[in-house]
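2.7 Reproducibility. Because tokenized structures are sensitive to small changes in the input, we list the exact sequence used for Amino acid transporter, including any N-terminal residues retained from the expression construct. No trimming or masking was applied before prediction.
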Amino acid sequence: MTDKDVDLMTRAHQEVVDEIAAREAAEDERHKAEHYNSGGVLDRYINSVSAINFSFILQCSWEAAAVTFQFSLSNGGPASILYGSIFAGIGTTLVATSLAEMASMDPTVGAQYRWSATFAPKWNRFFGLMQGWITVFAWICSCTSNPALISNVITGLTIFNNPNYVPQRWHSTLIMWAITIFPFLGNFWFRKLLGPLEAVGAICHVVFFIVSIITLIVLAQRSTVDYVFKTLTHDVSGWTNPVVAWGLGLLTVTYPLTGFDGVLHMSDEVKKARLRVPRSMITSVVLNAVMQFAYMITVLFTIGDVEVVSADFLPIIQVYYQATGSKSATNLFIVMLGIIIFIAFFNVFASVSRLAWAFSRDNGFPFSTLFAKVHPSLKLPLNALILIGTCLVLLAIINIGSSTAFNAFISLPALALCISYFFPILFLFIRRFTSSQPIPWGPFHLGIWGPIINLGAICYIIFVLIWMPFPSILPVDGTTMNYAGPMVGAVILGALFDWCVSGRKRFQVPIVRHRPDFK
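Resulting structure tokens (single pass, no recycling of outputs):
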């Protein structure tokens, strides 16, 4: 290739980028004019690096897997953790790539519910409203999981350092309330905090990962190859069928990789969103999937005495303690995990508040006008932020009444988010083969690979959804019941009730902004 060819390619690429930037600038002006009287708009200030870091840190996959791998110890064991990590990494990449293609067409805060309303073969308003309720609920649950994880870390360390401490369920609720205060207040200055917060988070996410792996490899006792690659645990939880046990153990490795769509719900604040949002989503999933796999295979090879690890309130504590033999070092490593999950909490809180604001802007909620407002000086959806904070405070009360609340806080986001991913991908897949009009693709287009990737994503989501509502322990009673399925069902019934009462008249079908060619 000659220098002239390279120069022509560079100019062509720059022309595309300039065209996209000009189109988005024009759209922003129209967008501001249209929504001036409907509550205000958000400013674009998130650059390329911050957009990638936002999703990269929000997922914090290896940290989340570290503090939840007790689910796999009793179901599936190493087979679920090792092979499940590979399966989840590939499957989630297919899902993220499918959604990234839609994000390139319409990078909007509403994302899934707007795409479902756009691509649904019929009943567009119905599917848009239902999808909106499910997606908002999924993200509220995802937001709740962060303080639940941190609460578990704090409780686990307290027991580790003070064996006489007897945890009470209301203790966890108070901890969750206290933790929620920080991202709620922090979002008032999120624009100023974003740069340093993302930089610190990304550094910690990578540095702690490297330090943890090196420490475990150098100091810990080695597991056998047979244990890591050939052990399938199906005789601990009551589930004796190996396939069922393996499927239930997937929660540890599938849950941490969800939430990559968080940057989607910040789209109105991302510069050149058609290029940067898809890139952020795919980059985040690939990097986090690789890190999660590397970390979990290291833990399996350095797990030490499995019975001691399994018996601990927070098993990862015993993994580090057996490796280092030092309480101080163990405390440091577990605090590292908590710090990164805490930083990710700021991103999750910001993302879900923008999603609730966008759904209100399209009249998805009752009393939508209240939550669709943007504070004129803070430039953030303050009322939506208060709504999410209130929901988190109320959901944390579940801890007081149920000893299985933590399981619900983890399985609920995974189940609800997978449902929220499923319908827009399914509708786009159908649209590829049934539409008589060309689909106006964005700059990121999968081409002939699109249907294959969409189908793979659909199959992965269906497989994962099968296992999410299952109880992790038999026999099933009030303390071992998995409440994720019933709670998602209740939200769906509530959305149907809203549709019948006022939603069908109130909800406006959102289409791709300022794209009259997208029918």
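The chain has a mean pLDDT of 85.
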